[in-house]
Recover the amino acids of this structure.
């Protein structure tokens, strides 16, 4: 049978069961995302904090590994931030094709939908004979507050 260490095997079979064969630990992380709902983007640190608040005994490294695993299984969606940080959110078919505005300074993340982006992705895929699976645009930007801060900083003190 499958040994606990053969992650590859476990992963492949789990893919077919869409999370039904998750360990209690992984189930717990997934449930946390299900409770917070769609459109919530959490860092590994935030997930860890919440688990600790629920009295779970788990290390940050384990949380991180679990998040990556759930992402590779398609249960979570991983969002890469400009400065190397990552956020995770629940993956769902209803909430799949949305885009993100990311503030490169404070990490604030806003979602938006855009039919024209989806259309562009579809056209690019069609034109090259690709089958479109997902079309996501991540826009790097400064949020209003950080933009104001930056402007102040550039002007300098009077
Ligand atoms: Zn999102
Ligand atoms: Zn900001």
């Amino acid at each position: 049978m499958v040994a606990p260490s053969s992650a590859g095997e476990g992963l492949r079979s789990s893919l077919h069961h869409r999370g039904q064969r998750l360990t209690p630990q992984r189930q717990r992380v997934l449930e946390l995302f299900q409770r917070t709902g769609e459109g919530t983007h959490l860092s590994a640190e935030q997930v860890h904090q919440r688990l600790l608040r629920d009295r779970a005994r788990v290390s940050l490294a384990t949380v991180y590994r679990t998040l990556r695993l759930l992402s590779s299984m398609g249960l979570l969606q991983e969002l890469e931030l400009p400065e190397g940080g990552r956020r995770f959110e629940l993956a769902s078919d209803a909430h799949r094709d949305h885009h993100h505005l990311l503030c490169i300074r404070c990490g604030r993340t806003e979602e938006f939908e855009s039919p024209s982006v989806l259309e562009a992705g579809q056209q690019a895929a069609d034109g090259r004979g690709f089958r479109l699976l997902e079309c996501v645009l991540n826009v790097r930007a400064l949020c209003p507050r950080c933009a104001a801060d930056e402007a102040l900083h550039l002007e300098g003190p009077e």
